[in-house]
Amino acid sequence: MSETDPSSAHILVIEDEAKLARFVETELTHEGYRVSVASDGMTGLMAARDQKPDLVLLDWMLPGISGLEICRQLRSTGNRVPVVLMTAGDDVSDRVAGLDAGADDYVVKPFSIQELLTRVRAHLRHPKGSHEGHLTFMDLTLDPLTREVKRGERRVELTAKEYDLLRYLMEHPRQVLTRQQILEHVWGFDFIGDSNIIEVYIRYLRLKIEDRGEKRLIQTVRGVGYVLRE
Description:
Blueprint: E1 10-14, H1 18-30, E2 34-38, H2 41-50, E3 55-59, H3 67-76, E4 83-87, H4 92-100, E5 105-108, H5 113-125, E6 135-137, E7 140-143, E8 148-151, E9 154-156, H6 160-171, E10 177-178, H7 179-186, H8 196-209, E11 218-221, E12 225-228
Parallel strand pairs: 1-2, 1-3, 3-4, 4-5
Antiparallel strand pairs: 6-7, 7-8, 8-9, 10-12, 11-12
């Protein structure tokens, strides 16, 4: 899908704080988006499944079902709608938990509407699409349709964000990818925050795809970024 025209983009806001929900709805509508609002977790989950929005703005703490659980349930059924978490927590552990649950991005409350709109535009401009055929590098394989990853005959279980990072590396083998490129393509926006999150996920990947002494494939290019090569 190409960049989404604001006049046709549908954004679902799942937020139980009525004043904030109205504010976000008003600003998004002013920008030309079609907006629907849900005020609790179960209603939001059903709306995300039934309405098929182009993007979901999702509060972390919700009555009934948490934002993290909504993410997990959507991803478990193959739903790849872009999800931006709205959270009051800014700890690295919170960010990692949200991204691992399947969220694509997050904003920390209180946020500026300009920041939120920038994130919305970025994810509508670069939605996740499908990729035909297996990706293979040496004895590492990735199936974009089933999301199955194998090192040789050994199946590798990855979180949603670990998978996204590995897929991006495998789509650009032997190409040195800068930290900024990785942030923009894997996290889907011009990242504002601690870029150490890349190092954290690279370490996670290495532990999983090299846990039996296999040859290292993800190489560090000091001061630049990372590359998938022999």
